[in-house]
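Sat 14:20. Reprocessing the chain from the morning session after the first attempt stalled halfway. Input below, unchanged.
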Amino acid sequence: MVGTVVIVEDNAMNMKLLEQALGIAGYTTVKSSDGDGLVDLTADARAAVILMDIQLPKYSGIELLKQLRADDRTKMVPVVAVTAFADPDSVADFMKEGFDQVITKPISIRKLLDEVARYCAG
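Finished this time. Tokens:
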């Protein structure tokens, strides 16, 4: 395996798409549909990268990012926003919030795999 990817996504079809694409590419995936316990989940999985939806049922992706950055065990784990908010201002806002990258929906599998490979390479 080439790395562990944590997927935080509440839409079952998007979760399945991400999980299958990453699995075929050889990545181990750990899933969360709502972000509950994300810091511990990420630390326990020794995640190489997190793919995080922005709109989740309990927390926003931005709230979860702040939790991750506040914990010494997860503050350095790259977090990629996966969102339908594709306009340039929204993408810039997510980057200002501290996301390492933004992938817009509908998801390009090629872009997704290229981005994950970038974080799992080192």
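The mean pLDDT is 94.
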